[in-house]
Amino acid sequence: MDLIVFYALGTLTVLASLLVVGQRNPMYSVLLLIASFLALAALYVQLDAPFMAVTQIIIYAGAIMVLFLFVVMLLNVPREEPDVPDPSRLFGGAGPRRLGVVLALALVAELVWALRRLGRTPFGGEIPEISSVRAIGRTLFTEHAFAFEVTSILILVALVGAIVLARKEA
Amino acid sequence: MDVALIAHASLILVVFTCLLLAAAVMVYMERKVAAAIQQRYGPYLVGPRGMLQPFADVLKLMFKEELRPKAADALLFSLAPILSAAAAFAAFAVVPFGAETTLFGLLDEPLPLGVADVNVALLVIFAITSMGIYGIVLAGWSSNSKYSLLGGLRSAAQMISYELSYGLAIAAVIMMAGSLSLREVVDAQAGYWLGFIPRWYVVPQFVGFFIFMCAGVAETNRAPFDFPEAEQELVAGYHTEYSSMSFAMFFLAEYINMVTVSAVATNLYLGGWHGPFLPVWLGWIWFLVKVFALLFFYVWMRWTLPRYRYDQLMAFGWKFLLPLSVVNLIATAAGVLYWG
Questions:
Q1: Nearest chain A residue (CA) to B161
Q2: A35, A92, B41, B165: which has the highest count of C-beta atoms within 10 A?
Q3: Per-residue pLDDT tens for B171-200?
Q4: A27 touches chain B (CB under 8 A)
């Protein structure tokens, strides 16, 4: 049963992600990415990490993707036009199109190689009981307190930068 | 068949049906209360005292023609009301509404009254509320009309802005209760101080309650924060181009969101299902009473207060409510540290 759910959610995630790059309309791409994140959150729940799942939805699918959506809507990103071969160039200007396919195949080959290697090495040490919010909070504010503070300053810098850039000249 | 499984499935069915009925009751209550405030009768023809009016409305909406503008994006135009309604219903799945009951001894182990008992319930509600924004944004954009787009963008910006204060008010309650689970937050409010003042969080957290209700009203796009759907300014905002059942879906989503915000406020601040005179297993009656009191307050505000202008609305959210909720959080942290 668990396996069926995992395969269903995994298929959903991968399918949605693949469809993101295959859309003409950029709004559909954004929505498919959101669907992919929702399926990913469900996978996190299955892995006994409900806090990760909810955080994924709140922050990634709920805030960052809204940003993407606004950008796509307001900057009027145009639809992709279908590829028309250019008769004046060699092979109809196929260089850029075919290169993308070659690079994708190279990436897939690398991933398969890396994952097969990972499958063969044994996983040393036991999995710590880290999924409770209390444990995450404790670790975040004691061991990783420095990273936490630096991240908040980073976000503050980004916020100030955005406001300065978007401000109208008086 | 497993009795527990049947009990759980029927609980889901009961909650779903009650939410739909709650929307119908809200439609009626809104019109009657509006009428009372404006010193007129309201619906009184359909059914006794006009109580069947919402059903007549639904029937009418079902028979209306379903329109779609030619330049509208068909897929997104149909998807938007579905997203809104789905998010509204899903948020109620983690809200508990009663103590554990054994259904008069039918069940072996007590069944907690609530669709799902998640130990990160408050975060789940927050997450699903964030998802509800997409329905409105997509409705505004896919209608391909200037009123809809403006209304959709304004509404989305408003909802995002008030989510911050909403979350910080919830964070203060989480600090006091020590848990993210709504059931535990309610159980921490059992009992009385001095024998007669209930231990509800509205007493120590009255500022937080104010922030939560303001943010909740803004989140659900209700007056006085309903500029995005103001009839006088924007025709009807993001749902201008919708008719018939899609329009009904948006309104259903809005009312269910109101019910969810009231239910969460009841659980967080008003003690949930705890109340005098009734045994704990009948606590859901108190829950209903409190939720309806908050819903009445919602309707009362709509027909009494004038609407905020959009820049006033955003200034209120960012320059007043957000700093106030941060101060509330710090004060609550100090209080929890000092008094344990």
A1: A63
A2: B165
A3: 999 999 888 889 889 988 888 877 778 888
A4: yes
